[in-house]
Amino acid sequence: MFHSFLRPFLQPFLRPFITPLIYQTIRQKTYLPTHEWLTDKDSDGIIKMGISHEARKELGGITFIDYIIEPQDIIDKDNELITIESIKAVATIQAPFNCEIVEVNENLENDLDSINKNPECEETSWIIKLKNLD
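The structure corresponding to this sequence follows.
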C-alpha cells in the first residue's frame, strides 16, 4: 500500500498500468438493478448470467436452484427463468430481454459451494447461458 506522502508522486506513473485492468473488469460484465450479472457476448453470441455478491449476501446461503426453463426454450422479457431458495428467502430471476436458453449450469444442482463462495466467477458460478433475441 502506498504511503500517503508517496501517492501523489507515484499515481501518474502507475495509472497507465492500473486503468486498463479496471476498464477490463468493468467491460466484461453488465450488472442489472436486480443484482444479476451478464457477461459480454462471446463469439457465438452467448451470454452467461449469474447473481452478484450483493444478491448472495442478501439471500444468505443458497440451498437450491430450480430451473423453470430448459435449453432451447424461447423466453419473453420479464418472464421467470429460475427460482433460488436460500436460508433467508426465495428469489426469482427473470429474463432481462427476449432470449433463447442455450444451457443451464447442471453442476450447481449438485454442488452449490461455488456459487455460495464466489457468485461472480464466470467459469463455475454462472447459472444460465442465453442468446439475446432482440
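The beta strands are 29-31, 36-39, 46-51, 62-67, 74-75, 80-86, 90-94, 99-104, 128-132.
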